[in-house]
Design a protein that fits this description.
By secondary structure, this protein is mostly helical. Helix content is 80%, strand content 0%. It has a domain of 189 residues: ABC transporter involved in vitamin B12 uptake, BtuC.
Length: 271
C-alpha cells in the first residue's frame, strides 16, 4: 500500500469524525472498565448496552436524536439497577439479567413496530464509521470530558469503594453516591460508544483491554494506564482496518483487542 493510499483516510470528513470519537471512546471505556472489573461487575456494560439499544429504538421511533435518548435511558436504568442492588433483596447478577433481557425484549418489540431493522439500527448494533454525525461528535466529546473530569476529581474515592466497599464506608465515604456515580459514568460511556463500537460489542472494549493490562501491569494505576494505551491502539487499528477493508468498525476494534489479549497470555511471564 503506497503512502497516498494510506493518507487517503484523512481526506474524508466522516473518517475524521470517527477517529476523534474513537479516541474519546478508547480513552474513557477502559477507565470505567477498570472500576467495573475490579468490583466484578463486568456484565454491567453489556446490560447497559442492551438498555442503550432500547433507547435508540425509542429515539428512532419517535424521531428524536438517538444518542441523546440512549444516554437518558441508560442513566435511568443505571440508577434503578444501583437502587435494586443496594436493597439486597435481589442478587446483583439477577438484577443485571432482568434489565438485560427486559431491555432487549423492549428493543425487539419497538423494532417490529418500526418494521424491522434498518441501516441506523444495524450500525448501532455493530458500529459504523460512516454514521458518526457532527451532532454525535458534540455529544461524545462533551460527555467524554465530563466522564474524564469526574474520574480525575473522584479517583481515590472510586478506587477505594471499588476495592472494598466496607472499608470505604468505615472511612466515612458516601459509598451509595460513589456507586451511583460509577454506574452512571458506565451508562454514559456505553451510550456514547454505540456509533463506533456498537452496543453488542462495547462491553468487550470496556473489559478486554483491562484484563489484558492485568496480565502485564502491576498495580492499579499502571494497569489503568496500560489498558488505556491498549484500548486506544485497538480503536485506531480497528478504525483504519474498517475503512480499508469495508467491515464493521465494532468487530474490527474488538478483534484487534482480542489479539492483544492473546499476545499478552503468550508473553506473560510464568509466576
Amino acid at each position: 500500500m503506497d503512502i497516498n493510499r494510506m493518507l487517503e483516510i484523512f481526506q474524508f470528513d466522516f473518517m475524521i469524525r470517527a477517529l476523534i470519537a474513537g479516541g474519546v471512546i478508547g480513552l474513557i471505556s477502559p477507565l470505567i472498565g477498570n472500576f467495573l472489573v475490579v468490583r466484578r461487575y463486568s456484565l454491567m456494560a453489556d446490560t447497559l448496552a442492551h438498555v442503550a439499544l432500547a433507547g435508540v429504538a425509542i429515539g428512532l421511533l419517535t424521531g428524536q436524536q438517538p444518542v441523546a435518548v440512549a444516554v437518558a435511558t441508560t442513566i435511568i436504568a443505571a440508577v434503578l439497577i444501583d437502587r435494586l442492588r443496594d436493597r439486597k433483596r435481589i442478587y446483583s447478577e439477577s438484577v443485571l439479567a432482568i434489565f438485560l433481557s427486559g431491555s432487549l425484549a423492549i428493543a425487539v418489540v419497538l423494532m417490529s413496530v418500526a418494521n424491522g431493522l434498518n441501516t441506523d439500527l444495524l450500525s448501532v448494533l455493530f458500529g459504523s464509521i460512516a454514521t458518526v454525525t457532527t451532532t454525535d461528535l458534540y455529544y461524545i466529546v462533551t460527555l467524554g470530558v465530563v466522564v474524564l473530569a469526574t474520574i480525575a476529581l473522584l479517583y481515590k474515592e472510586l478506587f477505594l469503594v471499588s476495592f472494598d466497599e466496607d472499608i470505604a464506608t468505615a472511612s466515612g465515604l458516601r459509598t451509595r453516591l460513589l456507586n451511583l456515580v460509577t454506574v452512571v459514568l458506565a451508562a454514559i460511556t456505553v451510550a456514547l460508544s454505540m456509533r463506533i463500537v456498537g452496543v453488542l460489542l462495547i462491553g468487550a472494549l470496556m473489559v478486554i483491554p483491562v484484563v489484558t493490562a492485568m496480565q502485564i501491569g502491576k498495580g492499579f494505576r499502571k494497569t489503568m494506564a496500560l489498558s488505556v494505551i491498549l484500548s486506544l491502539l485497538s480503536v485506531a487499528i480497528g478504525l483504519v482496518a474498517a475503512f480499508y477493508l469495508d467491515i464493521a468498525s465494532g468487530g474490527s476494534i474488538v478483534v484487534t483487542s482480542l489479539i492483544f489479549f492473546i499476545v499478552s497470555l503468550i508473553l506473560r511471564p510464568k509466576q
